[in-house]
């Protein structure tokens, strides 16, 4: 009588026992390989953490060019598996638009006064409204999915001389002139983006084309106590407001109206839905 053991067909019990041993060895090998992959993943996020701890030395400091290059290169190599994610997860296979306003989920890998490491999960059609990063340097790496990014910098970051009063507002609200930096679609894997306190697209909007995940490194993180609260804006086409009273030094950029817009500060949009979940990826040690 033939006996099947571990997927191997044998003619006697002794052979079945030998096949069972072989099957057990194969299973043990697969477990060892999985452990090695987990250890490699943990090592990647641990190295990223250690680099962030060296680079971000507190409020008021901006990473040096060689430090930016190092962190950017590390994030460029990051894979979803490095933080416990997989394209096979149901969230990323779901291509249907969520009913109502999609909820954005975020999880914190690590946070301290000098920097934070977070992951953002955006369902399809979810939008993180136009917002700023005061005094911050931010690295963003799209790990999975596709998204549209639109970002601006202030035309004059050191003053409000490029502002006008909104003639359509009874409250005489100020509009401030900004220049478009990015307005494009991105699909993972793609290069890491970097924004600085006054350059690189400090005010940006994320719109998910498909379900996507982004790892963000913020240095320093938002802090209301340290006057780094998040401010939201709406962008208004440049041509809708007169600049007759603007300083003459703006004339050289007024030739390209498509790159300019007026930003108006708004309250946090009521439709913005965000929730926090526990980080379940490879742990890091801050020892």
UniProtKB/TrEMBL annotation:
The keyword Ion transport does not apply. The lineage of its organism: Eukaryota, Viridiplantae, Streptophyta, Embryophyta, Tracheophyta. Its EC number is 1.13.11.20. It comes from Urochloa decumbens. Pfam families: PCO_ADO (PF07847). CDD domains: cupin_ADO (cd20289). Coiled coil: none annotated. Its cofactor is Fe(2+). Keywords: Iron, Metal-binding, Oxidoreductase. One of its GO terms (molecular function) is cysteine dioxygenase activity. It is an enzyme of class 1 (oxidoreductase). InterPro entries: PCO/ADO (IPR012864), RmlC-like_jellyroll (IPR014710), RmlC_Cupin_sf (IPR011051). This is cysteine dioxygenase. PANTHER family: 2-AMINOETHANETHIOL DIOXYGENASE, CYSTEINE DIOXYGENASE. The keyword Iron applies. It catalyses: L-cysteine + O2 = 3-sulfino-L-alanine + H(+).
């Amino acid at each position: 009588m033939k006996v099947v053991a571990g997927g191997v067909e044998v003619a006697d019990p002794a052979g079945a026992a030998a096949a069972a041993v072989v099957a057990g060895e194969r299973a043990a090998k697969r477990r060892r390989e999985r452990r090695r992959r987990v250890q490699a993943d943990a090592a990647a996020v641990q190295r990223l953490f250690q680099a962030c701890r060296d680079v971000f030395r507190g409020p008021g400091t901006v990473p040096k060019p060689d430090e930016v290059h190092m962190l950017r290169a590390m994030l460029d190599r990051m894979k979803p598996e490095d933080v416990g994610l997989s394209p096979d997860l149901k969230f990323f296979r779901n291509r249907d638009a969520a009913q109502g306003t999609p909820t954005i989920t975020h999880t914190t890998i690590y946070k301290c006064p000098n920097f934070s490491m977070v992951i953002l999960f955006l369902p399809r059609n979810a939008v993180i409204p136009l917002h700023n990063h005061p005094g911050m340097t931010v690295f963003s790496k799209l790990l999975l999915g596709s998204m549209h990014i639109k970002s601006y910098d202030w035309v004059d970051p050191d003053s409000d001389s490029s502002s006008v009063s909104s003639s359509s507002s009874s409250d005489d609200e100020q509009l401030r002139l900004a220049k478009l930096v990015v307005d494009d679609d991105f699909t993972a894997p793609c290069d890491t983006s970097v924004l600085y306190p006054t350059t690189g697209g400090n005010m940006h909007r994320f719109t998910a084309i498909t379900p996507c995940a982004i790892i963000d490194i913020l240095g320093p993180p938002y802090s209301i106590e340290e006057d780094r609260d998040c401010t939201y804006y709406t962008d208004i086409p440049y041509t809708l407001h007169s600049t007759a009273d603007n300083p003459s030094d703006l004339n050289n950029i007024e030739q390209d109206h498509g790159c300019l817009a007026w930003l108006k500060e708004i309250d946090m949009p009521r439709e913005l839905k965000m929730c926090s979940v526990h980080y379940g990826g490879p742990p890091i040690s801050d020892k």
